[in-house]
């Protein structure tokens, strides 16, 4: 007899008694099916999870496989021809660095419609014959969509006709000889020698007060066109005493030619300046010879002499060491751009360039960057983004370059607005530089063209001596003020009010009117601030120096879109009270331009201390640059003639970048949220029991309300802004996640009421996977968008 619960009479394997036979019902297929279904319901959660994972892997593979198997996009090829060897190697390297630095940035941001720009480098060896052979070789290469290059006018003059015959667009960054762009396929990202010569002539007559001049030039496309441009312009107001040609086949002046040059300079009855239309090496040889033989006249050179290499060679010469000032004193050189006169965007590019190459870019490097910039824009506008280019593609690129012929059709560049004039050259001002401490810096007085937007009363400006008329142009006489700010301390940063307190030294070095120091701070936030007398001042050789210490509060616009990963620019802005930008310009003192940015962050009072006095913030950077501000209205100014478009003032900006200390901020403000998230996730592991449903929902709702309270507390330090900051999105994501957990809890309770255990198990598995996946996805979004 078998008693209840006694298994002794059952089979060891299946629990049935010996001799048992299946009934008809048990032996039927339906009975077997029911048994299998019960087993399937028990194992389905694990199978479902595996199936979901498999589906996700297949989907990921389906999405990524086309990208993995897709061939790399074919590049767009641009030929870069510079002088890697020979006499122009240094200048060639400067151009190459500017081009490569810009194209690297372009490629990092997707290139041209996803296609990278690849350079095909060539060396013209600073030799015209080699430049022509190189151009012929490039002309046979069907990959080349455009050519950038040739360091000098002689090499570019030989190459340009070859590119035109091959119908390849050609952009030269530094060759200034007029004839290079005579054909419609050639462009340049600098000015012509005629334009340069006219400005040098105007400066010589109106600023230096010269009535005569002696011109020394080399027999090349560069030297001849520059000398001719100066001669034709200067003879309308003064007299060119003599024009002397120098240089043999190698470009170096012969002894007899140097003697003729010395005689010409000595016999000028008015002792006018000597204009050197020469490259670097002949210019250094000629200037040394003249100074050694007693010629003390002012010397003016062209753009080829306006670089740090030549100025340092002057300062290091034996003649300079023997007689200090003999080589660097009374020396001027024309330049398209000098580093101390860069605006904010240009200075930011120059600082990034210095971080990579260890030195500030020369104007040749900046012109190389501009050539690469207009080339990329032309390729984009012509929709050329493939390797095998056709004649039609090249014609489209040429047309896109030619279309950049007005300011509104141009592009923004390091010089400002970049566009080509009727000679297919950039419309750029000429900046006159002088040598100080071995560096080329902006001369104390400049002549600058009025902008096309300004309607000036020419007669009034001329009669007042604020402008000069030359070659049909009206040029404003502009006072250059070398300005420096050395910050001692940045403190008391109020993010709600948008104010900060700054303690700094401010100095001016200038020649001419003391109106240069009649300045104000447009973003001053302290109504009680008053200017005090300079704490130090001096005057030597016509150069005045004034030093002030300023301690006051400034206002600054703030952007909190990235809060709490935000960075802010605390700007100290200086401008003249009365003089517009056509009369006074503040440029960065050369010593500060060369100074390492880390050194700029040290206090002016104690170099062992930093300028960082902000709790919970870190000072990251300090940039000094010139800017401009103005109004297109007369604003009731009776000194403005009727019809004038307004007044524009030069500004000088010290831009201090500060970043929030994110780590302690996140620990303090996000730790409660993380604990709340952990508690919410723990509720997903509660057992299947109706008694736990109310507890789960209660904890999840409490977490949601706590997040709202925490968000209000975290953002209480912010001003009223009309946008959602980065941290708010994280809280909103958490509230959404908790809301879905509440839905899951209620859905689980409903499923449990219907006694569907397998469905309840599946829901729990999905929710426990969904929660961390959602959190990781939010974290990845933040990493991608905020770095």
Automatic annotation (TrEMBL):
Membrane topology summary: Multi-pass membrane protein
Annotated organism of origin: Streptomyces ficellus
Compartments in which it is found: Membrane
Residue intervals passing through the bilayer: 48-69, 670-687, 699-718, 730-751, 763-784
Main localization, broad class: membrane
Official protein name in the record: ABC transporter substrate-binding protein
Gene3D superfamilies to which the protein is assigned, alphabetical: 3.40.50.2300, Neurotransmitter-gated ion-channel ligand-binding domain, Neurotransmitter-gated ion-channel transmembrane domain
Family to which this protein belongs: Belongs to the leucine-binding protein family.
This protein's UniProt keywords: Membrane, Signal, Transmembrane, Transmembrane helix
InterPro entries: Leu-bd, Neur_chan_lig-bd_sf, Neuro-gated_channel_TM_sf, Neuro_actylchol_rec, Peripla_BP_I
């Amino acid at each position: 007899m078998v008693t209840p619960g006694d298994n002794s009479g059952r089979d060891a394997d299946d629990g049935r008694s010996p001799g048992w036979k299946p009934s008809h019902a048990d032996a039927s297929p339906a009975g077997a099916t029911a048994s299998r279904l019960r087993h399937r319901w028990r194992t389905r959660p694990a199978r479902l999870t595996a199936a979901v994972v498999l589906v996700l892997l297949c989907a990921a593979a389906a999405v990524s496989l086309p990208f993995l198997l897709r061939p790399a996009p074919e590049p767009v090829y641009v030929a870069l021809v510079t002088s890697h060897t020979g006499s122009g190697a240094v200048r060639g390297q400067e151009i190459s660095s500017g081009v490569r630095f810009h194209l690297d940035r372009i490629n990092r941001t997707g290139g041209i419609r996803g296609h990278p720009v690849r350079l095909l480098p060539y060396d013209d060896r600073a030799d015209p014959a080699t430049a022509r052979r190189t151009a012929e070789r490039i002309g046979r290469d069907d990959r080349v969509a455009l050519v950038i290059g040739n360091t000098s006018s002689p090499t570019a003059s030989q190459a340009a006709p070859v590119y035109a015959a091959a119908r390849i667009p050609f952009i030269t960054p530094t060759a200034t000889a007029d004839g290079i762009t005579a054909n419609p396929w050639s462009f340049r990202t600098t000015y012509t020698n005629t334009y340069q010569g006219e400005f040098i002539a105007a400066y010589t007559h109106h600023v230096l007060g010269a009535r005569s001049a002696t011109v020394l030039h080399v027999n090349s496309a560069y030297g001849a066109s520059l000398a001719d441009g100066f001669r034709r312009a200067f003879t309308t107001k003064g007299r060119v005493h003599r024009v002397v040609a120098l240089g043999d086949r190698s470009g170096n002046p012969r002894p007899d030619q140097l003697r003729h040059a010395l005689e010409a300079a000595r016999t000028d009855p008015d002792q006018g300046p000597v204009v050197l239309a020469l490259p670097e090496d002949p210019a250094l040889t000629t200037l040394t010879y003249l100074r050694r033989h007693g010629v003390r006249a002012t010397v003016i050179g062209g753009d080829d002499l306006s670089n740090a290499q030549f100025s340092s060679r002057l300062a290091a010469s034996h003649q300079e060491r023997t007689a200090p000032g003999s080589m660097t004193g009374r020396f001027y050189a024309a330049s398209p751009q000098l580093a101390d006169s860069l605006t904010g965007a240009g200075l930011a590019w120059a600082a990034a360039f210095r971080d990579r190459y260890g030195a500030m870019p020369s104007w040749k490097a900046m012109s190389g960057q501009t050539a690469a910039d207009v080339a990329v824009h032309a390729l984009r506008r012509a929709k050329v983004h493939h390797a095998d280019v056709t004649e039609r593609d090249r014609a489209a690129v040429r047309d896109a370059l030619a279309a950049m012929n007005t300011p509104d059709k141009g592009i923004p560049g390091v010089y400002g607005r970049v566009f080509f004039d009727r000679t297919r050259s950039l419309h750029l001002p000429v900046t006159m530089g002088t040598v100080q401490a071995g560096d080329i810096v902006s001369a104390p007085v400049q002549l600058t063209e009025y902008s096309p937007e300004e309607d000036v009363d020419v007669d009034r400006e001329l009669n007042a001596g604020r402008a000069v008329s030359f070659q049909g142009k009206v040029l404003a006489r502009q006072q250059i003020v070398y300005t420096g700010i050395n910050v001692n301390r940045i403190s008391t940063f109020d993010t709600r009010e948008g104010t900060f307190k700054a303690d700094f030294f401010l100095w001016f070095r200038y020649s001419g009117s003391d109106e240069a120091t009649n300045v104000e701070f447009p973003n001053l936030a302290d109504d009680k601030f008053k200017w005090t007398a300079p704490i130090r001042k001096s005057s030597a050789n016509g150069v005045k120096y004034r030093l002030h210490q300023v301690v006051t509060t400034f206002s600054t616009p703030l952007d909190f879109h990235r809060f709490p990963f935000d960075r802010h620019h605390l700007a100290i802005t200086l401008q003249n009270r009365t003089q517009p930008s056509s009369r006074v310009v503040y440029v960065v003192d050369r010593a500060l331009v060369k100074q390492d940015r880390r050194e700029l962050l040290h206090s002016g009072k104690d170099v062992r201390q930093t300028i960082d006095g902000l709790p919970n913030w870190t000072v990251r950077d300090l940039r000094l640059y010139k800017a401009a501000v103005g109004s297109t209205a007369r604003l009731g100014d009776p000194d403005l003639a009727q019809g004038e478009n307004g007044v524009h003032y030069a500004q000088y900006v010290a831009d201090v970048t500060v970043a929030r200390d994110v780590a302690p901020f996140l620990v303090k403000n996000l730790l409660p949220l993380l604990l709340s998230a952990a508690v919410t996730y723990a509720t997903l592991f509660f057992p299947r029991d109706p008694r736990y449903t109310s507890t789960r929902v209660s904890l999840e709702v409490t977490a949601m309300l706590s997040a709202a309270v925490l968000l209000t507390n975290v953002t209480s330090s912010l001003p009223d802004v009309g946008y959602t900051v980065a941290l708010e999105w994280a809280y909103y994501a958490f509230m959404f996640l908790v809301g879905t957990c509440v839905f899951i809890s209620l859905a689980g309770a409903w499923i449990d009421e219907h006694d569907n255990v397998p469905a309840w198990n599946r829901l729990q598995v999905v929710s426990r996977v969904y929660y961390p996946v959602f959190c990781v996805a939010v974290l990845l979004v933040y990493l991608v968008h905020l770095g």
